[in-house]
Amino acid sequence: MPSLVASQPRELQVVLPPPGTKTTGLSRSKNDKRNNNNTLNNVTILQQKKPRWNEATHSYGLNFHGRVKCASVKNFVLIDVGSALQSDSMLEAADMSREALLFGKLNADKFSMDIRWPLSPLQGFAICLSAFAPKLATE
Q: What is the tens place of the pLDDT at every residue in 92-107?
């Protein structure tokens, strides 16, 4: 039976349309205006803050500012990186003011979700639900 424990942390990236845009999704047609980084203009990109390896515990970890009580592969922090993708070192050093979504485990059956602009509560909840998708596929 294969191991269900990942050797590397999961990666998550979210692309949001501009606020107030009525759209059913983002498309990339040949008529799209793109910036120099080959991304669509006027979108907000959220990337997962990169966890750091802790030699003492031999595990990856993130700073949840006391909001998360249990270690879990579902725990994550999304950082607003603007309209351009950031390097790993910039994501590691991202400050608290850029955290758009914090999701983590409190106990066996409770989780905490903290959101801030540019996410709506519905968008934040939908992103957090996606953290459970891999587990649903294995059961």
A: 555 667 899 999 999 9
